[in-house]
Structure prediction request, 185 residues.
Amino acid sequence: MKILELDFHRPQRSSLVGVALLVVGFAACGLVLADLVEVNQQIDRERVVLARIESLRPTAEQAGRRAADDRKKAARVERDRLEGAQAVADRLAIPWGELLAEIEAADGNDVAITVLSPDPNKKVVRIEGQARDLRAMLSYNARLAASPMLVDVALINHEVVLEDPNQPVRFSLSAVWRQNDGRNQ
Prediction:
């Protein structure tokens, strides 16, 4: 009887086709891996670009804040325009005719008015002038105080001009005006 040899591990013969397929498989895996790396790099570049774009694009909060700032600026401009228009209206509302008539009525031959500055908000008029002497200035002040249109007439300052041989008195006074019906405006 012949001895039976059982070979449980028989050496395999590698075929040329098998080796070729193995090499082609490894090459294909290498190409796919290279493409994967390139695609991941492209995705990273696109994320950087997207992040830059997102940082430049205003968010909803920034857009809301910008819109609120624009509304505040527009409101401020409109308020400034209204205040300017109100200032013009206040200047036009000064009772110029009556005010000048009262100031001229109190004026005498010995007093000259040089500056008349009204403040429509406070209803105050500042009068600067020059009087022949101290007595003329005080009598002018008293005549203005007796005026029905002017109240709270007050002498702010006065100065004797010593350089002039006649030595006139420069003065400044203020008064509050009111309408003819007696109520303050």
User: Anything to note?
Assistant: Residues 181-185 have pLDDT under 50 and may be disordered. Strands lie at 111-119, 124-131, 150-160, 169-177. Residues 36-90 form one domain. The two ends are 144 Å apart (CA to CA).
